[in-house]
């Protein structure tokens, strides 16, 4: 079937950024971006300007997730709009400095955005690690971003038989304002399991390979290659499940050994979900089978999240070619 | 000393099980809370170290002028509660609970190779297929008690509690407390040889001369191979350009604490140990008469 008449025309992706250190203790991205800031040969492609960038240098220096507040939640319209001139419209500490990460968000929005404008960067890859056993995961923010869907399809095929899954977070309440959201095509890259503050060579190399294929795709696209329509399997975020807690908010159970490390495997109603500290099993009480992920991510204890549930969907990506 | 001579040791009346010495090593924190031991439930930021009483700051801008670091205050409080260190009033046994990102399984860390109490506890735990090592150079919380050791379990990321690791630590602490009960009730523990690992040296990551940033990661063939013998010329690191750097020592040694998160800032990629055999004598608790006689001897001295 010829898709010539039905290709979606997408602007050439001439400006691409690779963000590392959005969380300062997620070491694969920090290390890769530092490497490429020093020598960017590996990430250069024809017809593309690719900029490696450390988004949260103070957190990287401290090797902590953040300094004042999570940078990867800071790109809200309110934060990006807030200045001393608009102070009357937005609640903020009067006379005090903004939280460091809000200042960074504004700076990043100036350089790589403005978010939502024609001047924004075409693609931003935001590199993350997780303590969860998620393997290689690409995070998509919109089911209608055909460029990203085609890129993710390309990457999945390129690394096969190794696995790279796609997590779609379009949930009206659970979606958050990421650093990559300043770009027209934001791509999250999450590789685990890796402890915070640790660099594992296998995780580092896996992330590097995925970026190589992503940049190859962009180069092919910019040269005029047409990518025919395809179907991409995604996992769509449904819900966030917290740890059982007591009246004071203290955690009273752990992820059950049957669920620990079982990211992306089906969780059925009645399956073990948590284990209390004295060994009692707490079971999943949902209505149907879900696919859990971000199971036991260290940074999410404070966000009241033991794991997220997803459902599998097949998205159809339109054929695309450059304008 | 004859092999079959039974060493009489004082009763272990007070045992402290301490969690949260490193505030992001969660198994011990949750276990200690569960056992309702008296502890101060306060979060310390990751990488602050109560062990070794380093002068560390809670504030990213450094300590306020004249302010005493929190961990220094805590170490004095704990010395008052569990010690004083080196005094007759100190608790008899301290067990300090830790996690590591390294694949070390359950590991007991003692600070002496002639602390027979700790070595017999280790043998008792070894019956459940655990390993142990001795680190005569460590200077840590466990030393405020008359006997002490750390129970280190990994791998577990900091800030995470894994149910299998928690279960292993809970079982380890329970075995230890069971042993203390047996000991206090008069059981004799037979002498035997015990294999221990003695720390010889640390190896740091290769670093950039100017920036001091690391320029290689633990080699994939070494990652997670704690306590598996490392021979000269075995792969040690993999640089970011893919080159393999090999172990250049003369002697095959046992690596441990391979890729422990908290040790990057201490300049330690891994530690190396020699395995050796220690003869542990038979022990049992002192009778009341023996205890009196021992006290009278000490007074005369």
Describe this structure in words.
The complex is a heterodimer of chains A (323) and B (301). In chain A, strands 3-2-4-7-5-6-8-13-12 form a nine-stranded mixed beta sheet. Chain A has helices at 27-38, 57-62, 77-81, 100-112, 146-159, 201-222; strands at 8-10, 15-20, 49-54, 123-129, 135-140, 164-168, 185-192, 230-241, 253-255, 272-276, 281-283, 291-293, 307-317, 320-322. The two termini of chain A are 21 Å apart. With 323 residues, chain A is an alpha/beta fold. Chain B is of the alpha/beta class and 301 residues long. Chain B folds into two domains: 6-191 and 283-300, Aminopeptidase (3-Layer(aba) Sandwich); 198-276, N-terminal domain of TfIIb (Single Sheet), CATH 2.20.25.160. Chain B has five helices and 13 strands. Chain B has helices at 26-34, 70-82, 116-126, 163-184, 288-300; strands spanning 6-9, 15-18, 93-99, 105-110, 131-134, 147-154, 192-203, 216-218, 235-239, 244-246, 254-256, 270-280, 282-285. In chain B, strands 2-3-6-4-5-7-12-11 form an eight-stranded mixed beta sheet. Chain B has a three-stranded antiparallel beta sheet with strand order 8-9-10, with no helix packed on it. Mean pLDDT of chain B is 82; it is low at 37-63 and 130-141. Chains A and B meet through helix 1 and helix 6 of A and helix 1 and helix 4 of B. Chain B: Belongs to the AspA/AstE family. Aspartoacylase subfamily.
